[in-house]
Amino acid sequence: MESSWDCTLETCPIEYAVFGYRPSLPANIIFTALFGLCALTQVAEMGIFRSYTFSIPVILGGICEVVGYVGRILLYDNPFSQDAFLIQICCLTIAPAFYSAAIYFCIADIVKLLGPEASRLKPHHYAWIFIPCDVISLILQGAGGGIASVASQENEDPTTGTNVMVAGLVFQVFSLLMFILLTLEFLWRVRNKRPKSISDESIKEKSSSRHQKFLLFGIPFALAILCIFIRCAFRVAELSNGWTGELIKHEDTFIALEGAMIAVSGVALNISHPKLLSS
What we know:
The structure is a single chain. The protein is 76% helix and 0% strand. The chain is an all-alpha fold. The protein has a single domain (19-194, 201-278), classed as Rhopdopsin 7-helix transmembrane proteins.
């Protein structure tokens, strides 16, 4: 990482900063407020629905995002601050994993509701399998970040640490892709097992109401998954060329493919609360 933690805006050009730019103050304030609102909304929903396994990860994810964007606000004041850099890189790396965990817990309720017999995995196995995958990916990313940080402090090549981080991100993308494929297969099986025609009008109305309710839940839920996947794929591309790559030097790309993607995911998870399916 070609930066000097001892620099200031008065002594060094902005290009010496780790990102090569001064983070946008308005954009990072907006993200801080938005994720804070998402976390507070989920606290209220947890109080109403008592769905702790879903709400707690979403709240923790929102808190991590808030702290991460506070780190970027601090980088606006001093783009050469190592502490601010570590705050934002650690928190913004970890936060989406909490959102993913909420999704893994939520899919168990969906499988139970729509028909466990159509799922390749038992409902509780989704969380048992995919949450450890996220933990492994975070360990790799954290270890890689630590190695790269130490190397940069000692003016050594951070490539090894960066490669470990990329390996963690690739594993996260792979595990999320497997989850998406299993979920799509489950929904396909559920669709195929539905009766072709229903004659009883009361059953028709009940089925139609249930279908509309599932769409209102399922569309934002699917959007949350897609946004997290796009963000993870972006981080792989961003770090594949190391800390001097082209992507990492453009904040507009970061805002669009990191900040906006996870913000949409956070809002979508507040809308698609699993208790709405059973209400």
